[in-house]
Amino acid sequence: MSLEKELRARSNDSCELCGAKDGLQVYAVPPSSNGTLADSILICTTCQEQVENPEKMDANHWRCLNDSMWSTEPPVQVMSWRLLNRLRSEGWPADLLDMLYLDEDNLAWAKSTEPDENAVQHLDSNGAVLAAGDTVTLIKDLKVKGANFVAKRGTAVRRISLVADNPGQIEGKVNGQQIVILTEFVKKTK
Fold first, then answer.
1. Is residue 143 over pLDDT 50?
2. How far is residue 166's CA from residue 178's CA, in Å, rounded to a whole number?
3. How far apart are CA 187 and CA 57, in angstroms?
4. CATH topology of domain 122-188
5. pLDDT digits (tens, 9 = 90+) for 39-61
6. Is 8 in a helix, a strand, or coil?
């Protein structure tokens, strides 16, 4: 029996994430080493497009995860966890993530393809991840070298940019001047 036939039998001929009946195809859950029943799901074209292109994600489409996260199949659980985690900022996925239980192996699998772990991450003084365009607040007075002024504690620095090759530095404007600031001296503003 082919993998697709096995998946169709397991899923009752429907997308294992949203339940759609049309445009079904095999999706090997990364990082898949061998594309077997144990690491693949049957997925519709709508779900696949949104999984592979995060910028096209429609949060309302993924409300279906409320049902699919309870699947007994590990690859479905892993994909549900990843998608809920990706949508966490929407609010409702965080509640579902709190209820979702994955054993240690499946949780490790789910986390294995989160954003590139080798990518440089800029963290503020509290460990929050900083992104370009964020607003931060200085947590101490900083003497700005070469500019003859002190950036005061509590100063908001808007629309920061990240120093690509140094996770300990960001850039932003203070008193009209573009300066480099160490991430250990800033706190991300919500």
1. yes
2. 17
3. 29
4. SH3 type barrels. (2.30.30)
5. 999 999 999 999 888 778 899 99
6. helix
Phi, psi of 39, deg, nearest 5: -130, 25
Residue 81 near residue 100, CB atoms below 8 Å: yes
In the chain, residues under CATH classification 2.30.30.40 are 122-188
User: Mean pLDDT score of the chain, rounded to an integer?
Assistant: 89
**Total residues belonging to the chain:** 190
Torsion of CA 31, 54, 22, 68, to 10 degrees: 70
Half-sphere exposure at residue 157, Cβ-oriented, CA atoms within 13 angstroms:
33
Confidence of residue 80 (pLDDT cuts 50, 70, 90): very high
In whole angstroms, give the CA distance from residue 109 to residue 94. 19
